[in-house]
Amino acid sequence: MSTINAHDRLMVALDVPDLGGAEMLLDQLQDSVRVVKIGLELFTGVGPAIVRLAQDRGYRVFLDLKFFDIGETVKRATALVADLGVQFLTVHAHRKTMQAAMAGRGETPELKILAVTVLTNFDIEDVQESGSPWTISELVVARAKAAAEVGCYGVVASGQEPKAIRQAVGESLAIVTPGVRPVGTATHDQARVTTPSQAIEQGANYLVVGRPIRDAADPQLAAREIISEMQAAFNRRIS
């Protein structure tokens, strides 16, 4: 029976605005977390220096920039990301955008392209306002199918959609689930949230957690508790 190490599957979001805050959080988590997510705010404020800082401390890096632009721009930007040596990059799940990112990645297989299906703070009204006649689940599944066809490593989807994605594309895509909140924590601005156990039971492979760890009195303890819950859920899933 294969095993999954939950330490490799928790992605902690460095949702802080500056290098000092990021360095503090990286130091606090160093003995328990292996993957950190660098988002738009921190990367805009600090630039590639934050990637190097995380790598120097032994972390794998998930660069969550959600590229969505004309193909040539996405292709060239993705090539620059590949040169940074990060492991994960997000782009929006539109076919031309995904194709451009895959082309930009080139011969750098360690860079895994993740396609963002529907943002986790969107609800049905947001989807309808964009002109889509589909439900959120239908739109997520359609975009996941496109990501699989293009050859992306995985998709980003809320914990409410992995089961439907699995039914549509099987195990061909990794599923990264943000908007994860342990029981008893605030949902903040997330519209579609799940607990770590629920997301994994539905079929998620990686979980992204930010504020419940960042804002905890002891971030390392909070991360370890989530990893423990994740490990138990993975063990149940494979048994």
Structure characterization notes:
The protein is α/β, with parallel strands linked by helices and 239 residues long. The chain has a single domain (6-238), classed as TIM Barrel, CATH 3.20.20. Helix content is 46%, strand content 15%. The protein is built from 11 helices and 8 strands. Strands 1-2-3-4-5-6-7-8 form an 8-stranded parallel barrel, surrounded by 7 helices. β3 (60-67), α4 and β4 (88-92) form a beta-alpha-beta unit. The longest helix is centred in the last third of the chain and has 20 residues, at 219-238. The radius of gyration is 17 Å and the shape is globular. The model has no long low-confidence stretch (mean pLDDT 91).
Give the end-to-end Cα distance, rounded to a whole number of Å: 8 Å
- Sequence of strands across the biggest β-sheet: 1-2-3-4-5-6-7-8
**What is the H level of CATH, i.e. the homologous superfamily?**
Aldolase class I
Query: Can you summarize the main beta sheet?
Result: 8 strands, parallel, barrel
For the record, what CATH class applies? Alpha Beta
- Radius of gyration, whole Å: 17 Å
Could you tell me the number of beta strands? Answer: 8
Structural class: alpha/beta
Q: What do the pLDDT scores average to?
A: 91
Number of domains: 1
CATH architecture: Alpha-Beta Barrel
The residue ranges in which pLDDT falls below 50 over 5 or more consecutive positions are: none
CATH fold label: TIM Barrel
What is the helix/strand order? Answer: EHEHHEHEHEHHEHEHEHH
GO molecular function: orotidine-5'-phosphate decarboxylase activity
EC number: 4.1.1.23
Function: Catalyzes the decarboxylation of orotidine 5'-monophosphate (OMP) to uridine 5'-monophosphate (UMP).
InterPro entries: Aldolase_TIM, OMPdecase, OMPdecase_AS, OMPdecase_bac, OMPdeCOase_dom, RibuloseP-bd_barrel
